[in-house]
Amino acid sequence: MMNKTNIILIGMPGSGKSTVGVILAKRLAMDFLDTDILIQKNADRTLQEIVDREGHMALRSLEERTLAAIDCRNHVIATGGSAVYSKPAMRHLKKSGAAIFLHADLAALQNRVWNYETRGIAKLPGQSLQDLFAERMALYERYADLTVHSSHLNHDQVCEAIIGQLQVLSGLVDDDERESEPNTP
After folding, report:
1. pTM (2 decimals)?
2. pLDDT value at position 185?
3. CB hemisphere CA count around 96 (13 angstroms)
4. How many angstroms separate the CA atoms of 5 and 3, rounded?
5. Is the torsion defined by CA of 65, 68, 70, 76 positive or negative?
6. In CATH, what number does 6-177 get?
């Protein structure tokens, strides 16, 4: 972990990556980078416009190129939900950071994602949130260094869980020394 100064948030749309990322960066005195915003800035259009005009695979391709070009230290990086489709991009990000999977269950996501069809999600036309959830779950688990179950936690509690798990991962505290945290493995 010594060379890994970034915290990379991965998870489904609606899992809280962007909101938690801002709060976490502030609490840890780190910079924040939202890769969806970076993609939109580089493409000079919204994610939904990319999907509408060129299709979901074009968005994934832009995302892969954007992620592969990231070169930063001491950042909290909120990735798009489809970042995990790119093995090269995830390998690149994980060289400089720990990947934290914000695992929100399907019921929580269905309550949070009210704009599924217009949110700019890299998905097949007509693909349901449930199908997308099932398709991506193994990918999130594959790339996660840590998992925080965020369905029943508020943003501050998710940040606390992340900070606690990172302390254990880096050896700053023993697992026994930590206070019991709800919904964390």
Report:
1. 0.89
2. 42
3. 15
4. 6
5. positive
6. 3.40.50.300
